[in-house]
């Protein structure tokens, strides 16, 4: 029962009882009865006044409590002129002012934090209490090349992108640099915060690809230039001496010296091969900016197939084309792009043991070229080092073929990947759009 109801019932019962008693006591004395009735009326008026002074303000404060429940901090009350009630009203009004100020401050901080997360140059992934993705900012979506709807609300361990497997394995406070496909490198940092008394995790994701590639190129460029300098300084004079000796007929009078002459020729040939070997490395360092001109992609692909046809035939590998009839023109450096495709097709042919096939297909809708081979595939360990300078899976490989492909693709700002997508199906994909 409400306090107001209790008060009204109490006042009614009390006054009715007083009237009944006055009737029985003063039934023979009308004057005293009238005086008693007047007293009851005055008491009722006082009770009504007390009701207005006490119960109504309490009712008003209850309305304020309802406003607090509804998170409406704009409801305030005017003073009533009654000392005790006004003290309560002052406390209530001060509390509402503090709550309104605090809510405004929190909303401003929340808006600033949301804005900061949204515009941050670092990818940020925020998880809920169950390690489901609750929020992911645009930078993280861009770096991972994924759609927001595909990840929000999903368990971190059930997402297919390989980065999420590394995120799940990370402990709070740990940092890890991962290289997924031999090209893209990411720095992952996992931390946590307290939300309503429980711990929640968030991940900061930074794309280090450009920085690592630049540092890598600087290092191997310096090494290659040093090697080329030393080799050229040695080969040049040595070959000059041997050529002079070969041209001096007096030294070769008679046939007893033919083996020596042959040995010198072999040494000169080996020096020439070494010079060519170093020139290949030097070409990697000195790769000029792409001279982009309109290129018909079909003609470029057909040219590569013609150039590699004999090598493929020797290994029993068939080269096939899946090209659209409508000419597709792209802006590219034809010589550089041709060299990159030659390297990829050459690797694809060499990856096939026995009979197999290499297919070059163009998808104009997705703006991509796919070179598929039926070779032995790429292992997980090889995948992480594919485009690393000097790394090669071949016994006599120099490790510059795929590195040159990488540099040419980056030179053109083309997205690309090389991976085994199924058994006997390895794909090199390049997007020109």
UniProtKB/TrEMBL annotation:
It holds the Pfam family HAMP. Residues 226-433 form the Histidine kinase domain. Residues 52-104 form the HAMP domain. The chain crosses the membrane at residues 7-25, 31-51. It comes from the Bacteria. InterPro entries: HAMP_dom, HATPase_C_sf, HATPase_dom, His_kinase_dom, PAS, PAS-like_dom_sf, Sig_transdc_His_kin-like_C. This is histidine kinase. Its EC number is 2.7.13.3. One of its GO terms (molecular function) is protein histidine kinase activity. GO terms for biological process: phosphorelay signal transduction system. GO terms for cellular component: membrane. PROSITE patterns: HAMP, HIS_KIN, PAS. SUPFAM superfamilies: ATPase domain of HSP90 chaperone/DNA topoisomerase II/histidine kinase, PYP-like sensor domain (PAS domain). Its main location: membrane.
